[in-house]
């Protein structure tokens, strides 16, 4: 596999590099960048072949999520796992909505970090449970009546709930087909219906909205 690591602290890129070099017992290729310009050059060189980029949002000369936005614009299909010391809800939700494969705080321990990387590589979207809980709590406190109304008005069929549960576990379409014994066309129809029910455009938005609407989404 091929990994890209972007962080302005060399000790972080070194530690992650050592972790990913033999990740899952393979002899992986790891490329690192310690600045905005190096990050863009790295993305341009390996954006079409890399299995995963681990990106720190807080780089010198970078404002907010601007570096992430540029990389996504240039390489929309590249899988990016954001890692940052910034854990405010707005920033996390924004990068997830931009298409990030997940968000991990820098305080995450090695075991959970490894699990998060493996989850993302298998097609999942890693979302901090704390973020989802906070989003749900905030929604309930700011407009409890609206929240109750939303729970009542968003209806999913039992099969759609099954599909939603597997989406939350990061299952790709083919795995959902196999586990539920459904055709690919049927699963895609259910996924589209779920997105429409929550007014979402991607898996991450759908999962966030599902939690806000009271659905039990296990992560």
SSE inventory with pairings:
Blueprint: E1 2-6, H1 10-21, E2 29-33, H2 36-46, E3 52-56, H3 66-74, E4 80-84, H4 89-97, E5 102-105, H5 110-121, H6 129-142, H7 144-153, H8 158-168, H9 173-180, H10 184-197, H11 203-212
Parallel strand pairs: 1-2, 1-3, 3-4, 4-5
Helix pairs in contact: 2-3, 6-7, 8-10, 9-10
How would you concisely characterize the structure shown here?
This protein is of the alpha/beta class and 219 residues long. The protein has helices at 10-21, 36-46, 66-74, 89-97, 110-121, 129-142, 144-153, 158-168, 173-180, 184-197, 203-212; strands at residues 2-6, 29-33, 52-56, 80-84, 102-105.
Structure notes:
With 219 residues, this protein is of the alpha/beta class. The chain folds into two domains: 2-126, 3-Layer(aba) Sandwich (Rossmann fold); 132-212, Arc Repressor Mutant, subunit A (Orthogonal Bundle). It has eleven helices and five strands; from the N terminus they run E-H-E-H-E-H-E-H-E-H-H-H-H-H-H-H. The chain has helices at residues 10-21, 36-46, 66-74, 89-97, 110-121, 129-142, 144-153, 158-168, 173-180, 184-197, 203-212, and strands spanning 2-6, 29-33, 52-56, 80-84, 102-105. It has a five-stranded parallel beta sheet with strand order 2-1-3-4-5, sandwiched between helices. Helix 3 links the parallel strand 3 and strand 4. The radius of gyration is 18 Å and the shape is globular.
């Amino acid at each position: 596999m091929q990994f890209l690591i972007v962080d302005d602290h060399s000790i972080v890129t070194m530690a992650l590099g050592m972790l990913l070099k033999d990740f899952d017992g393979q002899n992986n290729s790891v490329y690192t960048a310690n600045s905005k310009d190096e990050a863009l050059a790295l993305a341009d060189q390996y954006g079409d072949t890399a299995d995963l980029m681990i990106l720190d949002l807080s780089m010198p000369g970078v404002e907010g999520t601007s570096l992430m936005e540029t990389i996504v614009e240039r390489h929309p299909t590249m899988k990016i796992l954001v890692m940052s010391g910034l854990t405010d809800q707005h920033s996390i939700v924004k990068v997830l909505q931009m298409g990030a494969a997940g968000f991990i705080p820098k305080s995450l321990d090695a075991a959970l970090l490894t699990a998060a990387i493996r989850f993302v590589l298998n097609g999942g979207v890693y979302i901090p449970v704390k973020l989802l809980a906070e989003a749900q709590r905030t929604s309930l406190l700011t407009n409890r009546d609206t929240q109750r109304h939303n729970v009542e008005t968003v209806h999913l069929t039992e099969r759609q709930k099954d599909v939603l549960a597997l989406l939350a576990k990061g299952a790709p379409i083919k795995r959902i087909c196999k586990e539920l014994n459904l055709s690919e066309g049927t699963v895609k129809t259910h996924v589209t219906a779920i997105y429409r029910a929550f007014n979402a455009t991607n898996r991450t938005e759908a999962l966030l909205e599902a939690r806000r609407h009271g659905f039990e989404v296990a992560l």
